[in-house]
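Design job #97: recover the sequence.
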C-alpha cells in the first residue's frame, strides 16, 4: 500500500462508523446511479456484478433494490467494510486497493460510487476494467466534478487526487468504451461554523489526502475568510458538492478479450 493510499485508508477507517449517516450527498448519488442504470435499459436481472469501493454499502443497497443480481462480488480498501455488507455478499468480498485486485472473467456490471476520485491513475484502471466487461455490460461510475469543495480549494486545502467534469471523461475512456449517459448535479450543504463542517468531513472520511490540520487561530481566520468570500443569505458556511454520474458501455467495435489478470 502506498503512502497516499495508507493515508486515505486511515481517514476512511476513522470515518467508517459515521459514514452511512453523514454521507447524504453520496447516498443520493448512489440512488441516482441505480436509477440511471434502469433508464439505460439494464435489468431487471444482472447475471454478474462487481463493485469496488463498496464502503458502508450505499451503492450496494441501491443496486440490489433495483436489480436481481445473481452473482455480486465486492471490494473495498478497508477489510472491515465487509461487516457492512449483507451476509450473503460477504463471501465474495475482496479487500485492498482496487488497483491490486485481480479480476477473472467478464462482468455484466462493474460499479463504483464516490471512489474514483481517490484513484491515482483512473485511465489505467478504466482500461483494465474494460477488459472484464461483458459485450453488453456497463460501467457505472459516480465521482465528483471540478468545483467540488471549491470553498476548501480557495483556502489551499489538500484535494483528492481526481476531479473530472462530464467533458473530461471521453478522453479517460479506453478504446471500445463510450459514455451512454452522463449528468452533473450541484448542491451546497450549509454548516453553522467551520468546526461543524470539518467534523462532517472527518465523519465521511474525505480528508484522506490532508497532510495537516488547522489550529484555533488559523481556523478562526479561515472561517472569517470563508464567510467573506462565499456569503450565504442564511449566514451559514456553504460547502459545494458537484456529483458526476456516468453510465459507460461498449461501442460497436467492442473491447479486448478477458481472462484472469494480474494488475
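Job complete. Output follows.
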Amino acid at each position: 500500500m502506498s503512502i497516499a493510499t495508507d493515508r486515505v485508508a486511515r481517514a476512511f477507517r476513522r470515518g467508517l462508523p459515521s459514514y452511512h449517516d453523514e454521507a447524504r450527498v453520496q447516498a443520493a448519488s448512489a440512488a441516482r446511479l441505480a436509477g440511471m442504470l434502469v433508464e439505460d435499459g439494464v435489468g431487471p436481472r444482472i447475471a454478474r456484478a462487481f463493485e469496488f469501493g463498496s464502503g458502508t454499502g450505499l451503492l450496494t443497497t441501491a443496486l440490489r433494490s433495483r436489480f436481481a443480481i445473481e452473482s455480486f462480488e465486492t471490494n473495498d480498501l478497508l477489510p472491515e467494510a465487509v461487516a457492512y455488507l449483507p451476509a450473503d455478499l460477504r463471501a465474495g468480498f475482496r479487500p485492498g486497493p482496487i488497483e491490486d485486485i485481480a479480476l477473472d472473467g467478464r462482468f455484466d456490471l462493474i460499479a463504483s460510487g464516490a471512489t474514483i476520485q481517490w484513484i491515482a491513475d483512473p485511465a489505467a484502471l478504466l482500461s483494465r476494467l474494460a477488459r472484464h466487461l461483458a459485450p453488453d455490460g456497463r460501467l457505472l461510475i459516480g465521482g465528483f466534478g471540478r468545483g467540488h469543495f471549491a470553498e476548501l480549494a480557495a483556502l489551499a486545502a489538500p484535494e483528492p487526487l481526481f476531479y473530472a467534469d462530464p467533458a473530461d471523461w471521453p478522453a479517460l475512456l479506453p478504446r471500445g468504451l463510450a459514455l451512454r449517459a452522463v449528468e452533473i448535479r450541484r448542491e451546497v450543504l450549509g454548516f453553522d461554523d467551520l468546526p461543524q463542517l470539518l467534523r462532517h468531513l472527518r465523519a465521511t472520511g474525505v480528508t484522506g489526502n490532508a497532510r495537516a490540520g488547522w489550529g484555533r487561530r488559523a481556523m478562526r481566520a479561515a472561517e472569517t475568510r470563508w464567510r467573506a468570500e462565499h456569503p450565504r443569505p442564511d449566514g451559514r458556511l456553504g460547502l459545494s458538492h458537484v456529483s458526476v454520474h456516468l453510465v459507460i458501455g461498449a461501442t460497436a467495435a467492442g473491447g479486448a478479450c478477458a481472462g484472469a489478470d494480474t494488475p
